[in-house]
Amino acid sequence: MHSPLEWTGLSQWSYLVAAFAAMLLTVWLADRLRRGKEGSRALIAALALTTAWSLLGSSFGPIAAITQVFELMRNLGWLAVVYSLFARDNRHTSVVQVRPVLAVLAMVELFQIVLLVLAVRFSGIVAATAMIFQLSVMFRLLLTTGALVLVHNLYVGAISGQRDAVRWTALALALMWGYDLNFYTIAYLGRTIPLEMVALRGLVQIGVILLVSVGAMRGGSALRFSPSRSVAFQSLSLLVIGGYLILMVAAAQSVAWLGGNVSQLAQLGFAFATTVVILALVPSARLRGWLNVMLAKHFFQHRYDYRAEWLRFTRTIGRGGPGASPLHARVVQALADITDSASGLMLIPGEGGDLVLAARWQWPTAEVPAEAMPAEAAQFFERRGFIADLDEVRGGTDHEGEAGLIPQWLVEEHGAWALVPLLHFDRLVGLVVLGRPLLARKLDWEDFDLLRVVGQQLASYIAEHNGQSALLEASRFDEFNRRIAFVMHDIKNLASQLALLARNAERHADNPAFRKDMLVTLTNSADKLNALLARLSRYGAGGVQRLEPVDAAQVIEAVAARYREAGGDCPVYVTQGQTCLVTASRETLEQVLAHLVQNAIDASQPGMAVLLQTRLDGFNGVIEVSDTGSGMSADFVRNRLFTPFVSTKAGGFGIGAFEARELVRAMNGRLEVESREGLGSRFAVRLPLVMATELEIQPDGRSGDTPNDKKVA
């Protein structure tokens, strides 16, 4: 064990050596600067102040008031060095980012003057002296914490090839303030200055001067400060935590003045209240969002860290595997992540030119109609590539005429925040509805630029996906057609053989009764096989039998009667059989309705009814098949229901719904679908009325050969 006298002697000699070393380095750097060589006036000033502080510490002791004043000046001088390193090479945009932090730290250090005056004024009061000492140490802790954060950002933020210019100075500052952090922490906990660490502090100061000397002799290149968002956010978080700690310590120290049980109760209550507040705020996504916005607004030229955004965008879009979300959902998430939106929707063009819902991302409550956006609005976004701020639309702002085209459900859905079109070679392939972020803000030019570029990239992914899907479907049809060609050949041969057998049996059979039964059986088989062959041939040609006037009411009555005679768990009823003369093929229409009714029965629980009805709608006749079964999601309707060779039934071939839609189209009609999961489905076969056909009216109510642009599911 060393006596206090021995520690005092070591302290005097270490401070004296540190003063001598700092003085030599100061004179050398000043001489270099006088001779026109590269040098830093801030560094020379900081070394001069360090010389004075070390000399006073050796003469009067580190705790003396005059020594404390020069320690304050020494710290301010080294903060100026940090400032000069950030500002080197006239990088004023970098200085703006750290100037507020430097100003706060300088203000904290200047409070030491007030505390020194108070210490002299209340030197006779023990409690006051102890409290002033604790406050002084606490402010020094805050200074050293903030200074270390700045030194960390100074080194990490420099480009890797230019770090040599700052490495040794940053290491010296980290050593000095790092030791001071431990020094004042022990002083605060022990409520006194540790003599051993005072002596060692002089030795540490010698090490600091040596490191600065190495850095000065090595020189360096110009610096450019470029901290990452994560480093800046962590630094700001450290400062916030440090400020919170200082606040808690100061409050606890103030409460201690109350004395007695009141002091204990007050401290207990304060601890409980602050614990509740910190537990409520730390996990808050809103608080984190606010910190990010404030950081980007005041510390960076640009809102976004484009490298980080691109990496996250790539990970989101490229995510695969069995558990991955569909592409459209990932597209919404990729855009929503950029603006911190909490949810989103994906609308894509339907076959009639309008926009329909394709995917939801964390937005199950949004009420989206079957026609989410009319064709006129889709054409507007396709022509202009305009990103719409829905808050501006609600406020009455109309930049390019978008206010009159955005559907009312989007205006009334206050969770909807922005509309981002996805354009691929000036063609609209989708429209993303972004939900409102947790921290509401106004979109600016940087948001619009980034969303527009990302939207174009996403549009290329969607176009590629659509192209691959089309190629896959074409290859499946090619394989299907090859197989059907063989089937048709075999069926044709079989039908010919059966027909020949029937003719031979009619001429040569000896038993009249046997001949009669055999004739009926073989004739029916031949008829069935020929009917199958004819239907398969029609599929390949894409047509139907001759179109003629058909009463749709009679057709649904016949279909319902067929199912009633066959029995079954789900009854089929005709709720409204309004006379409805449409232009169609009766056999084809019965085939389509039979398929739709069977699908409705398969989707319903036993005892639940399937309803058929006809009605007139302008120049169209509409046949509806409704059920209250399991229903379908919008994603299934859009992406799977009419996709060939995709079936949810065990052993299903997956072309039934596709076949029904194609047959309806062949009769110049449309097949529309509305469905909700858990509520049921409604299929509507829309065919032109006979009178409309005679007037050459299209199914959407327009004359001539204008293509139909209404929604076809």
From TrEMBL:
Q: Which GO terms describe its molecular function?
A: ATP binding; protein histidine kinase activity
Among SMART domains, the record links this protein to: HATPase_c
Catalytic class of the enzyme: transferase
Record InterPro entries: GAF-like_dom_sf, HATPase_C_sf, HATPase_dom, His_kinase_dom, Sig_transdc_His_kin-like_C, XrtA/PrsK
Keyword Lipoprotein on entry: no
Q: What's one Pfam family here? A: HATPase_c
TM ranges: 12-30, 42-66, 100-120, 132-156, 168-186, 198-217, 238-259, 265-285
Keyword terms, alphabetized: ATP-binding, Kinase, Membrane, Nucleotide-binding, Phosphoprotein, Transferase, Transmembrane, Transmembrane helix, Two-component regulatory system
GO aspect biological process, one term:
phosphorelay signal transduction system
Report the EC number(s), separated by commas if there are several.
2.7.13.3
Q: Where is the Histidine kinase domain?
A: 486-691
User: Which reaction(s) does its UniProt entry say it catalyses?
Assistant: ATP + protein L-histidine = ADP + protein N-phospho-L-histidine
PANTHER family linked: PEROXIDE STRESS-ACTIVATED HISTIDINE KINASE MAK3, SENSOR HISTIDINE KINASE
Q: Which NCBIfam families match?
A: PEP_his_kin (TIGR02916)
Q: Tell me what this protein is called.
A: histidine kinase
Source organism of the structure: Novosphingobium sediminis
Q: What is the lineage of its organism?
A: Bacteria, Pseudomonadati, Pseudomonadota, Alphaproteobacteria, Sphingomonadales
